[in-house]
TrEMBL record:
<keyword id="KW-0479">Metal-binding</keyword>
<keyword id="KW-0482">Metalloprotease</keyword>
<keyword id="KW-0862">Zinc</keyword>
<dbReference type="InterPro" id="IPR027268">
    <property type="entry name" value="Peptidase_M4/M1_CTD_sf"/>
</dbReference>
<dbReference type="GO" id="GO:0016285">
    <property type="term" value="F:alanyl aminopeptidase activity"/>
</dbReference>
<dbReference type="GO" id="GO:0006508">
    <property type="term" value="P:proteolysis"/>
</dbReference>
<feature type="domain" description="Peptidase M1 alanyl aminopeptidase C-terminal">
    <location>
        <begin position="554"/>
        <end position="881"/>
    </location>
</feature>
<dbReference type="Pfam" id="PF01433">
    <property type="entry name" value="Peptidase_M1"/>
</dbReference>
<dbReference type="InterPro" id="IPR045357">
    <property type="entry name" value="Aminopeptidase_N-like_N"/>
</dbReference>
<keyword id="KW-0031">Aminopeptidase</keyword>
<feature type="domain" description="Peptidase M1 membrane alanine aminopeptidase">
    <location>
        <begin position="222"/>
        <end position="437"/>
    </location>
</feature>
<dbReference type="InterPro" id="IPR035414">
    <property type="entry name" value="Peptidase_M1_pepN_Ig-like"/>
</dbReference>
<dbReference type="Pfam" id="PF17900">
    <property type="entry name" value="Peptidase_M1_N"/>
</dbReference>
<dbReference type="InterPro" id="IPR012779">
    <property type="entry name" value="Peptidase_M1_pepN"/>
</dbReference>
<keyword id="KW-0378">Hydrolase</keyword>
<dbReference type="GO" id="GO:0008237">
    <property type="term" value="F:metallopeptidase activity"/>
</dbReference>
<protein>
    <recommendedName>
        <fullName>Aminopeptidase N</fullName>
        <ecNumber>3.4.11.2</ecNumber>
    </recommendedName>
</protein>
Length: 884
């Protein structure tokens, strides 16, 4: 059952309105849906096709009359009502079982609260309906629930609430904006709400509410502030106002994803709402601001203008991630913090999207086909999608981008649009031909660009030649050259940017220039380059590509020191580190070179950045953090997890030993006394302090060990406390297990902390002669902190272990993969979406050393032979096994 983008056809019937009423009972909720179906002029058929999944049909009335056999047909997943030739009212009663809904798609229960999740295809698990995003209807919702259910919420405006004759409660909601079914939401339970009023730019007042379980009262202040900031930011940056009188957020512990932008009633995974200094880290605070922003920004880019079909998912997600990134950056303000944000975003892309683009699940940001759309909520659609949107801004500037975005919204407000629509709005409002740019939507793979430079000392010219190389896919047409914005600068031998004057120009124009690479090979020549030049390329990460540069170590160290572009400075240092890691791996594999040393020039560059007080602590911490083992793996031809670990540990140990004084100094000078504040400045200090402590811990420095212990004990915030445990387990300090068991006892009865503790446990290093970590992880699936059916638990323990477990997961005895098999099969029985995410951990099996890759292949094969696999997991496994 594969769906293809090319097969899209417009619906034969629209739904003008839907009246829904719910009688909430955990195992037997009755849903009555009254829809007005409107046949379209140019329809191909009079059949009205409704989707349905896991529903018990009770009755159907057509135009007020009980239906009779022959008026409709049931097909797998469909209810087809014949002969709808005119505007017709259809009333359908169904029963559903929210208590048994462990897929967490449709209407389900989280403890005793009712929650919905409808994107992408959850609404069909509530009632029969044409569950596709190009059907926009007006919703009216009646909720009836037992009297101990106090809070009954849905989209839009509350028009009435009260008590029924039988003592139950009811509420009636009306959403003034037509919407697709995936944006429907219902929440029922007992909550507390933090409320705040905001005055919008047109003087209207809106009520903001954040609903949580009573136990979480007091943890929503930061989320509320973030929401207010997001509202103001969208007003200022894009002139987009909140269009509702009431905007609600609900937090739940049981949720498959991060959060959901249901119109006026966003539903969030509680980890992206709840925060205080004891349950959230600096990173969590930053994530909350970002995700609150993200879902709020969807109100325009997603809700007011939605997607025609699910192939267009990046239309709303790529765009909204971009808006979220810009929001977070604007909240930081200064250049160096903004650079940290950019480095972070690019790391996510390189760590997880690049491997996806190079592996068997590669797909363009607008996929061509899918078996389960849920498998395409990927870093490609989201993060690469955001980079593609960013390129419009790079090409047209902030003003041009704003013009294009507003044009897009004006054209398509209240409708379902496509990626082409967006591109055309951008192109036309900036008078630019973007037909070639369109290839970013249809070609998968990360472009590789080889870079050649030539300096003619006599003629004083500098020539840059770029050659793009795009991934070919068997059975697909050869890739065409993309349109790639390449921002460059040229440093002179003192490290200053030189003014750039292209051949044919009368005078230089700026020191950073945007070149447009839109052919397979292209050259640019710059004049008046009189000292030995050094190229800085892809400044600010101007396009989601890989530049194959051939810098020497000295050149990289020079760029890391002098590039005026803070992103590229960090990038040069990272390349330098990666080169060194490669060297260590080679040495270690050849002759077990336990006494290998980072070069003096590397240590010098490292220390220079560490001690450079003109750079913010956050920036220094970001640059000097060792690349993750996954990222190192991604940059190698053959992946050998044990060697990567050994090399990283050794390098960190050496750096810790050699730069002890500087690290101690950083620890001393980056304390954050007084009340905990999650702002960027304090967070940056904590990051630099923890980074320094970590290097010293790897060096098994006795004083540092004591500091780790004290930090855990005395910290007034979770960032430090968790940081301490993390350092202890990752650096295999003798106190690692002790701190972990302390935290087990002390971090009690708080789901957020339980999950953090589970994730930390996966980082325990297996020591010779000791119990393997994989055994511990298996045992932890029985631990009271682990909730079998809860996605956050599963992601925290199994997801983290499979993703970052290194040699503890990739074991030559296959025990790691056995746990993977068991987990995927177990979870797939009740939650295929979550299982499919776990399943992805082995898809790049071909790149591993032969022992591991054979075992991974066997594990994949074993899962594929399971008869009752969900389509979700089957799609992942089949791709992994078949595509080269
Ligand atoms: N639209 C949500 C967001 O990114 C995510 C929904 C995920 N849904 C899914 N079926 N994977 O804000
Ligand atoms: Zn989104």
């Amino acid at each position: 059952n594969i769906v293809f983008r090319k097969d899209y056809t417009a619906p034969d019937h629209q739904i003008e309105s839907i009246d829904l009423s719910f009688d909430l009972i955990p195992t037997c909720t009755e849903v009555t849906s009254k829809i007005i179906a409107v046949p379209q002029e140019d329809r191909k058929s009079d059949d009205l096709i409704l989707d349905g999944d896991d529903l018990t049909l009770v009755s159907i009335k057509i135009a007020g009359e009980d239906s009779f056999p022959g008026q409709y047909d049931m097909r797998p997943g469909k209810l087809i009502i014949h002969n709808i030739k005119e505007r017709t009212e259809i009333e359908i009663v169904t029963r559903i079982n929210p208590r048994n809904n462990l897929e967490l798609s449709g209407l389900y229960m989280s403890k005793n609260n009712y929650i919905t999740q409808c994107e992408s295809e959850g609404f069909r698990r509530i009632t029969y309906f044409p569950d596709r995003p190009d059907i926009l209807a007006k919703y009216r919702v009646v909720i009836r629930a037992p009297k101990d259910y106090k809070d009954l919420l849905s989209n839009g405006n509350l028009v009435e609430q009260g008590e029924l004759l039988d003592g139950r409660n009811y509420a009636i909601w009306e959403d003034p904006f037509p919407k697709p079914s995936y944006l429907f939401a219902l929440v029922a339970g007992n909550f507390v709400a933090q409320e705040q009023k905001v005055t919008l730019s047109d003087g209207r007042e809106a009520l903001l509410q954040i609903w949580t379980e009573p136990a979480n009262k007091g943890k929503t202040e930061f989320a509320m502030q973030s929401l207010v900031k997001a509202i103001k930011w969208d007003e200022e940056r894009f002139g987009l106002d909140l269009d509702l009188d009431r905007f609600m957020i609900v937090a739940t512990d049981d949720f498959n994803f991060g959060a959901m932008e249901n119109k006026g009633l966003n539903i969030f995974n509680s980890k992206y709402v709840l925060a205080d200094e004891n349950v959230a880290t600096d990173q969590d605070f930053a994530n909350i601001e970002a995700v609150i922003g993200h879902e709020y920004f969807h109100n325009w880019t997603g809700d007011r203008v939605t997607c025609r079909d699910w192939f267009q998912l990046s239309l709303k997600e790529g765009l909204t991630v971009f808006r979220e990134q810009e929001f977070s950056a604007d909240m930081l303000g200064d250049e160096s913090s903004r650079a940290v944000k950019r480095i972070d975003d690019v790391r996510v892309l390189r760590n997880s999207q690049f491997p996806e683009d190079a592996g068997p699940m590669a797909h363009p940001i607008r996929p061509e086909s899918y078996r389960s759309i849920n498998n395409f909520y990927t870093t490609t659609v989201y993060e690469k999608g955001a980079e593609v949107v960013r390129m419009y801004q790079t090409l047209f500037g902030k003003d041009g981008f704003r013009r294009g975005l507003l044009e897009y919204i004006n054209r398509y407000d209240g409708t379902a649009a496509t990626c082409d629509d967006f591109l055309n709005a951008m192109a036309e409002s900036n008078y630019e031909d973007l037909s070639q740019f369109e290839l970013w939507y249809s070609q998968a793979g990360t472009p590789r660009i080889s870079v050649e430079t030539k300096w003619d000392e006599i003629a004083k010219t500098f020539t840059l030649t770029l050659r793009q190389n795009n991934r070919t896919f068997p059975g697909k047409p050869a890739p065409k050259p993309l349109m790639i914005p390449v921002k460059i600068g040229i440093l002179d031998d003192a490290g200053n940017d030189i003014p750039l004057q292209l051949e044919g120009e009368d005078s230089p124009d700026g020191t950073s220039r945007l070149l447009i690479l839109d052919e397979a090979v292209q050259s640019w020549t710059f004049r008046n380059v009189s000292t030995k030049p050094l190229l800085s390329i892809g400044r600010g990460f101007s396009a989601p590509v890989i530049f194959n540069t051939e810098y020497t170590r000295e050149q990289l160290a020079f760029l890391a020191r002098h590039d005026s572009d803070l992103f590229n400075r960090a990038d040069a240092f990272e390349k330098l580190t990666l080169q060194m890691v490669d060297q260590f791996i080679t040495d270690l594999s050849r002759r077990g070179a336990q006494n290998a040393m980072p070069s003096e020039s590397y240590l010098f560059a490292f220390e220079d950045i560490l001690n450079d007080d003109s750079l913010s602590p956050a920036y220094r911490a970001k640059v000097l953090e060792m690349p993750s083992e996954n990222y190192i793996a991604e940059n190698r031809v053959l992946i050998e997890p044990a060697l990567i670990r050994e090399a990283c540990d050794l390098i960190k140990r050496r750096i810790g030993q050699r730069l002890r004084g500087s690290f101690e100094d950083k620890i001393k000078n980056n304390q954050t006394p007084g009340l905990y504040r999650p702002d960027a400045a304090d967070a940056g200090r904590r990051a630099l302090k923890l980074l320094s402590l970590s290097y010293l811990a790897y060096a098994q420095d006795a004083k540092a060990m004591q500091q780790v212990r004290n930090l855990y004990k005395n910290a007034n915030n979770l960032t430090d406390r968790l940081g301490a445990v993390n350092i202890a387990v990752q650096a295999s300090l003798p106190i690692g297990e002790e701190l972990l068991s302390k935290a087990d006892v002390e971090w009690k009865s708080e789901p957020l902390l339980n999950n953090k503790w589970l994730a930390l446990s996966t980082q325990l290093r297996t020591q010779r002669g000791k119990r393997p970590t994989v055994d511990l992880i298996r045992a932890l699936t029985q631990h009271p902190k682990y909730q079998d059916h809860n996605p956050n638990s599963i992601y925290a323990l199994l997801g983290t272990f499979f993703r970052t477990g290194g040699p503890e997961f990739h074991r030559p005895d296959g025990m790691g993969y056995q746990l993977w098999v068991d987990s995927v099969l177990f979870v797939d029985k009740f939650n295929p979406q979550v299982a499919a995410r776990l399943a992805r951990a082995l898809e790049n099996w071909r790149r591993y050393e032969p022992t591991l890759s054979n075992l991974m292949y066997k594990a994949l094969k074993y899962v594929s032979e399971e008869k009752n696999l969900s389509p979700n997991v089957r799609e992942i496994i089949e791709h992994a096994l078949t595509e080269p």
